[in-house]
Design goal:
Elements (H helix, E strand, L loop, with lengths): L3 E9 L3 E6 L2 E6 L2 H6 L6 E10 L4 E6 L2 H11 L6 H10 L2 H9 L3 H5 L6 H19 L16 H11 L4 H14 L6 H8 L3
Antiparallel strand pairs: 1-2, 1-4, 2-3, 4-5
GO cellular component, one term: Holliday junction resolvase complex
InterPro entries: DNA_helicase_Holl-junc_RuvA_I, Hlx-hairpin-Hlx_DNA-bd_motif, NA-bd_OB-fold, RuvA, RuvA_2-like, RuvA_C, RuvA_C_sf
Family: Belongs to the RuvA family.
Length: 198
């Protein structure tokens, strides 16, 4: 229904963004990859979107790159992978890393993602490896944005992990362990990616 949204980015967090266009603020769920590519708040933003209509909710997902949206749509068409799991996958690794893992039949890389077991990883590879080899193995540009420190790295990471489906106590435990291991020297994106692999 909505192919894309272009407007002013009024708010962004590691799991969602709000884009205002024609006086309407769209709450759009995003991956860490898209978060890293989004510009500054109060500037224009453009997101390719997918609207998921459920019985009790309408969820709008946004992607900075069309290739990430295409990968998301391929993933949610696989039995056992819903929109939340697909978003966790795209927050745990870049689209290119996921595409390469599928094309190379790298089950271990896929299994390292939270919520992806051996059978699901095998199903993803079986259903998508040919498409990945043909359509998706193009390099995608990557840029990094500075992490906003209006809240601590721990708070940001825990909040994002809870939104992505982890229980708060597990999220807090994983984040604390990672920050201790890294001597507190890690970005929110790094902490979330590592926590999703624990």
């Amino acid at each position: 229904m909505f192919a894309y949204v272009r407007g002013i980015l009024t708010h962004k967090e590691h799991t969602h963004a709000i884009v205002e266009t024609a006086g309407v603020g769209y709450f759009i769920r995003i991956s860490l990859h898209t978060y890293s590519l989004l510009g500054e708040v109060e500037k224009e933003a453009f997101l390719h979107t997918h609207l998921q209509v459920q019985e009790n909710a309408h969820n709008l997902f946004g992607f900075a790159e069309l290739s990430e949206k295409k990968l998301f749509l391929e993933l949610i068409n696989i039995s056992g992978i819903g929109a939340n799991t697909a978003l966790v996958m795209l927050s745990s690794a870049t689209p290119t890393e996921i595409q390469q893992a599928i094309a190379n039949e790298d089950i271990k890389t896929l299994q390292a993602i939270k919520g992806i077991g051996a059978k699901t990883a095998q199903r993803v590879i079986l259903e998508l490896k040919d498409k990945m080899k043909k359509e998706f193995l193009a390099e995608s540009g990557k840029t990094t944005q500075p992490v906003p420190f209006y809240r601590s790295v721990k708070e940001e990471a825990v909040t994002a992990l809870v939104v992505l489906g982890l229980a708060r106590n597990i999220a807090e435990k994983n984040v604390e362990a990672i920050l201790k291991l890294k001597d507190g020297n890690a970005t929110v994106e790094e902490v979330i990616k590592l926590a999703l692999k624990m």
